[in-house]
Structures
1.
Amino acid sequence: MSLFRFTRRFGWSCVLFMVLTFVVMATAQPAISTVPVQAAPTVQQATAATPPIYGIETNTGRIASRGVQNQASALGASWLRLNTVSWRGVQAEPDGPYDWSALANFERELAAANETGMIPIVIVDDYPRWATRYETSCSAITSDRFNDFAQFMTALVERYHQAPYNVRYWEMGNEVDIDPSLVAQDNFFGCWGDIEDTYYGGEHYGEMLKVVTPAIKQTDPNALVMIGGLLLDRPNTTISGRGKPERFLEGILEAGAADSFDIVAFHTYPWFRERRVDSDLTDYRWSLLGGGVIGKATFLRDIMARYGVDKPLFLNETALLGFIHEESFYQSQADHIVRMAIRAASIDIQAFCWYTLHNNGWFSGGLLDGSNQPRPAFIAYQQLIERTSGLGTPVRTNDYGDTVEAYRFTNRTVCLMCSGLAMRRHTPLNCHEQPLLLPLNVMASRWSWGQPPER
């Protein structure tokens, strides 16, 4: 039930201070009071303060198009993840010169990021075949070419860490825990995976970091290096012939590379099932650990803890995917983006990037349609960003019963969402299916179909 339908049913006296329903149609937005902005949290072990966690990704060149850039400005996200830098595009031959004209699209993307006030996270992949183990750009770099890669990264960082580009966040590959045999040749994945290896190629990747990261830091001491976002499909792979990709991070740490990265990035992609199902919590691969967001973060932190390591986590690629294009799916995406982002923030995940802002044609994940007009998830995300920016880390609270997943912010604002338990009951709920944001000190005496406990 939306706020507008609820108002017609119960009257304004019950909901005068319900300031926001995140899930709204792109053509209608409620009037909401403003929220004071406070200082942003800081990334652990980083050298400077970072913005709120909200971010997006765009495919090559898309953010530089005026229509997409304008919508990015309207959205208000802080992070922009870019997968455009191609080593093989810049250096086609071993010991050959660097052709920076190959990164013209990248430079336009950085200009757009600066114009919109977003911080770029730059993926470096697409390696030249003269440097890879296999005949594909999506493959691990051979150890005898680590120094070549370090030299390339030195030149890349030297060129782009200064104005007008201002790049600080460097991501070493994308979904590096994938074996190249599982994807098409020259794919955009990282493909450092090795099915036959105990740690799925993680040790070899860690050895690369030990050579390349010092070169990056020497060029720009303020640079932050992150592990190429881990696909991390499941916590225990039992599929025959697939190896153990979940051990990739262990391999990096076994290689003694803990001091050669600053951030652990990971991805999660739940699939739409039906309107009243929380696809994140009920993802069969991760449900026993709390769902894709919480479960994967817990899994990665447990691995780091065993090695005495504590690094920040970025969830820098995610979406709710589906095979259908019905309104129920797009409205579910709008619910979903709020649920996932709030959960991520509550467990101190320090970046959350939706794939993608524009319409990418990949299982309807884009926040914009083919005409660059907002889908419901865009509006939900936009409202979430506006109303929670500067409020600090939300803290989970059980004050509202088992049918409500509630989070309290530092200024006593509360985010209320139907819990997975309530959604599975298929009965009248003591909460809204869509997330709500309410100021605690002026909560209505009755909300949705029930009443909150006495305070």
Note: The CA atoms of residues 62 and 438 lie 36 Å apart.
2.
Amino acid sequence: MSVAKRGEWYHFRFKVGGVLSTGVCRNPDGSKTRTKEPAEAYERQQRRLAEGLAAQKTQAAIVENYRDVMAGGKRLALADAWKAYLAKPRRRQMRERHQAMVKGRWENFLAFLRDQYPEIQHLQEVRPEHAAAYIGHIRTRGQWIPADVREFASKLDWSIGAVLRAIANGGKYPETGSTEEKLAYLSEQRQKRAKKWGKNRVATYTDEGVQLSTAAQNNYLATCAAVFAAVGEEAGVYDPPFKAITKVENAPEEREAFTPEDLKLIGGKATGWLYHLFMVATNTGLREGDVCTLRWSEVDLAGGWIRRRMLKTGKRVEIPILPALARHLRTLPKDGEHVFPELADRYENHRTSIGCAVSRFLADLKIETTREVPGRTRAVSVKDVHSCRHTFCYLAALNGVPFPIVQGVVGHMDSAMTRRYMDHATADAKRDALKAIPDYLSNGNGTAVPALPPAPNTPRAELHRLVDRLSDEMVEAAREALARLVE
């Protein structure tokens, strides 16, 4: 027992794991002790505490060392995780735009860690509780707003959405620059945007707290889970932090097809590239990007086919050119690579301007393009450029085009997607067919309707009534007698 009296009080002294511990011994009430028995009890208590702490530290060190050994001694920094993720082989390479969206979601998670858990620097240090905290924020308050963005919004007196848009507007954001350099950059980008769109278009982006759609929430979760799944093992992550988090059940608001009345309005008012866009999209089912970047080398006017590899899926499709589209294409000049040069330029350089222009055009025609959805901060788009794709499937089903042909033309990887698009026609066909059934109860507005017509009183009708009263044997005898009569 390592206790000794020094002066008036007893002191303890011992080593655990090579670490020396010393101090004054105390009574159970916390006061210093002058007697040996409580001093020895206190020393035993302190020794047990020291041994337990040493064991915890040893276990933690064993776990960390095991991770390092299994990972070849490497620790993957959070800042390097995205590059390592991109280097992994995949079945289909991401397109540039899609890659930028996925990267943005991953960087949003990194911004969350920087602000909330600055001590975390490596991938293997991220725990399930960190993942749960981030996804919880995504589902309740939307994307994480970085601390520096909040600071800039305050200093510039902008909305947070305006700062985010200015950062992404173009040029090179000075990630490592001074605050003054970053503010100067943001101001410059804001001025460029104001000059391009008009002053009232600059700060119209929603502040934080925007409720994301269930699809967007699941995309943030899927991105983080994918990065950890791809590079986690080599970084010593054997229990991926996002693995136990399930996706939110997705109940998307489906876009609506344009009605025949809508199409007549659009055809009568659309001009220029807007007319090109609607004409091709509604006659082929191609997506916006595929219409805008359509090349003459993909159009066989003589044979009547459009053959193209779709941008989104990479699937090759062959689409018959319908007569109306063929007439339109023959009026266009063929002096360039793209069928619609202006649309191609807009898609490559000012992509969002296409959707904005279409929305304004449809609004001018009094065609309702959005719908309020409970629990969502913003109205949901239900009629836009993509509705042309639904319209193509709708019109095909309405006119009896077999399902496999429609799926082959629109290039859906999943047959369920094509069926959903064609359901527009199914609903209309059912409604139109059922309209033929008379409303004998109320005429639809509570007023009486004409009575049922009286049963006819003719010899033929009387014969029908008599036959209905006969037994099966009597019917057979009557049938034989009638057969002989008509012979």
Note: DSSP finds 19 helices and eight strands in the chain.
